[in-house]
Every structure is written in C-alpha cells, then in structure tokens.
Amino acid sequence: MVLNKVNNIYCVGRNYAAHAKELQNEVPTSPMLFSKPTHALAKAAGREVSLSGNRGSIHFETEIVIRIGKPYEQGIKLEDIIDSFTIGIDFTLRDVQNELKKKGHPWLLAKGFPNSAIVSKFIPFPGIEEMKKIDFILQKNGETVQQGNIKNMLFDLQTIIDFTALNFGLGEGDLIYTGTPEGVGPVNDMDHLTLFWGNSVLGECFIKLE
Hints:
By secondary structure, the protein is α+β, with helices and mostly antiparallel strands.
C-alpha cells in the first residue's frame, strides 16, 4: 500500500466492552468515531518510529484496520467494499486525552500527532467469517500485551461502514481503525513492537521518543 493514496483515516473508539471498562469509560450504544490526519500515518516496516516524548504517557491501542476499495453505496456489503486489511496501532497521548475529556473537548490533540497511526502490511480481505477464526496480537519486547478478535466487537464491520458513510462519507482509499481490545498500555523509548495476524508477522517497529 502506498501511504499517499490514503484519503481519510477514521477510528472507532470503545468498540470492545472490556477496553471501555479498563479505562473506566461508559460502553457506547452507537459507534463512537473520531479521525486522524493523514500526517499521522506511518508504516511498521522494521524501522524506528519517532513519537513525541515530552507530552506525557503514550499508549498503544492495537486494532484491525480496513481499507475501503470503492465509493460507498447504500446497501453495499462489506465483502464488496473492503479490499484489504491489516493490523495497526492507534497511539494516544493518554495524559493529554484525559485533560481533554475533563473539559469536554475533542480528542484530536491526543490522537492526531505525527506517526500516531501505525499500519502494517495490508493483505486481502478474506471475508468476515474467516477473520473471526484468527486473533490479532501485539507483542512488546517479545511479550504479548494485547490479543483480540473481531467477533468481540460491540459494533461489527458492516455497522461501522454504514455508520461512517452515513455521517462522513466513505470512498476509495479511506482507512478505518475498528477499535482496540483490553490491554492498552504505555510505550517507552526503544520498545520493539511486533504485530501479528495469527502466527504471521505483518509488521514491526522500534519506538523512538524524542
């Protein structure tokens, strides 16, 4: 995938009940969406990824990321609009986000900073039932810290696609981060992050806090 062909980056918050509860947040009753600028996008391609090291704690949030392959039309099925997917990380400035939440402000300052939207290698979308058979995993320095499966989502992929298109529009080249399971936590300088789809490594990177 060529990063400059990405048009919009949408993200679903609190889409796994256990994650909402671990951060002491209410479980939503409809999809909770926010966005990231395309400047946030970076590849987990075995190299260093630079993040701001002077704005408080940065948390990893590992997610299935889907790529939209054609313009949305009402009634379209997910198998006909998703052309590929990968494992990504939604990095979050947690201290900044907590302050924004207290003030009732948007999350963009905590979510949209450079390199805050990591993507691994995109692979063809195999269909929803096949995806339910495989877990996605994040290892930090060789230890599994997050493991999830889309069958545990509060809002499934079809619901997310329809809701996003209705409210914002959806077209070719758009990415959707579909939510993170429980187990989010901080990253430190030179942490080695590895993203798995089942037993297959789709991406890895080293964190450089600057």
